[in-house]
């Protein structure tokens, strides 16, 4: 998902029909791929000539050409670009004769598609944001470098450990399609849920509600003080599922989400979906949603929440960095797992959370210096760069650890706490990756957004969504995926 609400439609995957997404691993699904827009219509052109490899050594395990220039493009979104610049400075220390070109943009696909088509792409790309390049198309057209050499290289801090052995579970698999090749390295690790201010709850003499009845009581207490219970990005209502989907899984079990992801008939008519939709609709009916929320952007809703106009906000852990300019110093930001609808009948325990990878980094096949691109990723996956990212942008990285000895900001500390508390009860819905237009435009805007604005009842929204899902299932032009 990254740090922006906009996602482009994933096109059909032309040449390589066998390519499939990495499937879920146990209860913990592999982190989600961000939804991407079309790109890389070019073929397997030779492009610019690659630089000669350097001399492989203990300090240079990927055989980087020490004098070769390095071309890096970073998505300039909620995480900014300073963390990449800092890692590039470490790269320069190791290769002082190498010139590093750093570029940042929010128009990844617009700016880079011509370079891919011309065979002269950058050496490393943070392929994130609203206008990302489509990963399936890039892999299908043989446009990416297999990162296995990076994963099998000694880690930056401990030569006795391979890079792959330092990563969070599932990170390698999330970058694979079919086969053992790894095409993508997700650098950030995102926790989704119901975000809130401990300070503002304390003012109401309340704690985060672990049951839905408690949630309604807290919202009613807030309403009496002139404060809304919830707000959300009404212009991008596919933010609501960040807390709604794990709520569905909590009520009915992870199998409900898997059936939804698989586009199975009547999956959306599961009783758990109806119960979750009715609970969220109750927020609207009781007047617990901030007036005007249907017209708010993600920034608008975050700002209103920071200003204390609403208690709860469905969002991802990038929000701490993205909203820091408007967040009061005493806000004490935190994230909560979905409240229990019924502790006795819910299939999963309180604490069930949605967490997955973000910020997908790729090394183009036709890059002039692919070894340099992978080496910069190796630097970024070192403890120093990882800790710098954590401190700078309040987000975890895919390095398994990296927080030792750090004083974490409130939101990030809370993210880590809920992850630890969740244990294996971590879910990762794949709908937003596999069927972008269905998730965004139809389920999000045309159904959930309409329900949260009071223009559809839960039953009407579910009927509409099931129709959308059935249409997608029958559409031969849409590539289909299944959980294994």
Which outline best applies?
Answer: globular
Number of helices: 18
Q: How much strand?
A: 5-15%
Radius of gyration: 22 Å
- The first-to-last residue Cα distance is 22 Å
Give a description of the structure.
With 484 residues, the chain is of the alpha/beta class. The protein is 37% helix and 12% strand. The protein has 18 helices and ten strands. Strands 1, 2, 3, 4, 5, 6, 7, 8, 9 and 10 form a ten-stranded mixed beta sheet that branches. α1 links the parallel β1 (70-75) and β2 (100-105). The radius of gyration is 22 Å and the shape is globular. Residues 1-47 have low confidence and may be disordered.
Q: What is the compact description of this entry?
A:
With 484 residues, this protein is of the alpha/beta class. It is built from 18 helices and ten strands. Helix content is 37%, strand content 12%.
Short key terms for the protein model shown above:
alpha/beta; 10-stranded mixed β-sheet; about 35% helix; globular
């Amino acid at each position: 998902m990254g740090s922006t609400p906009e996602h482009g439609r994933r096109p059909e995957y032309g040449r390589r029909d066998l390519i499939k997404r990495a499937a879920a691993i146990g209860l913990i699904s592999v982190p989600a791929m961000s939804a991407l827009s079309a790109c890389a219509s070019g073929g397997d052109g030779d492009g610019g000539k690659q630089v000669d490899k350097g001399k492989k050594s203990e300090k240079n395990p990927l055989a980087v050409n020490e004098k070769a220039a390095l071309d890096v493009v970073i998505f300039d979104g909620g995480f900014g670009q300073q963390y990449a610049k800092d890692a590039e400075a470490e790269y320069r220390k190791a290769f002082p004769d190498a010139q590093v070109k750093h570029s940042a943009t929010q128009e990844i696909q617009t700016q880079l598609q011509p370079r891919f088509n011309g065979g002269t792409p950058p050496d490393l790309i943070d392929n994130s944001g609203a206008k990302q390049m489509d990963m399936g198309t890039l892999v299908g057209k043989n446009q990416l470098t297999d990162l296995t050499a990076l994963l099998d290289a000694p880690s930056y801090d401990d030569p006795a450990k391979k890079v792959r052995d330092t990563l969070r579970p599932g990170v390698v698999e999330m970058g694979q399609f079919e086969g053992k090749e790894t095409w993508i390295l997700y650098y950030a690790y995102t926790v989704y849920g119901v975000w809130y201010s401990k300070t503002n709850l304390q003012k109401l003499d309340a704690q985060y509600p672990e049951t839905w009845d408690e949630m309604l009581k807290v919202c009613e207490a807030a309403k009496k003080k002139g404060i809304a219970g919830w707000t959300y990005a009404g212009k991008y209502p596919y933010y609501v599922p960040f807390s709604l989907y794990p709520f569905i899984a909590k009520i009915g079990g992870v199998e409900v989400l898997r059936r939804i992801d698989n586009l199975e008939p009547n999956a959306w008519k599961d009783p758990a979906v109806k119960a979750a939709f009715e609970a969220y609709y109750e927020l609207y009916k009781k007047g617990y949603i901030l007036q005007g929320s249907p017209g708010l952007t993600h920034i608008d809703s975050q700002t209103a929440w920071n200003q204390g106009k609403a208690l709860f906000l469905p969002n991802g852990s990038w929000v701490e960095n993205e909203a820091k300019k408007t967040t009061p110093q005493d806000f004490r930001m935190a994230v909560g797992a979905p409240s229990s609808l019924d502790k006795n009948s819910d299939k999963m325990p309180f604490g069930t959370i949605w967490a997955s990878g973000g910020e997908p980094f790729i090394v183009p096949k036709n890059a002039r210096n692919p070894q340099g691109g992978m080496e910069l990723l190796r630097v970024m996956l070192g403890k120093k760069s990882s800790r710098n990212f954590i401190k700078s942008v309040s987000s975890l990285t895919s390095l398994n650890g990296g927080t030792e000895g750090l004083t974490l900001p409130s939101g990030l500390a809370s993210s880590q706490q809920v992850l630890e508390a969740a244990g294996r009860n971590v879910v990762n819905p794949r709908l937003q990756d596999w069927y972008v237009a269905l998730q965004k435009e139809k389920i999000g805007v045309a159904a959930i957004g309409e329900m949260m604005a009071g223009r559809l009842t839960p039953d009407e929204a579910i009927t509409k969504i099931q129709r959308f899902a059935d249409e997608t299932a029958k559409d031969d032009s849409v590539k289909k995926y299944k959980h294994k």
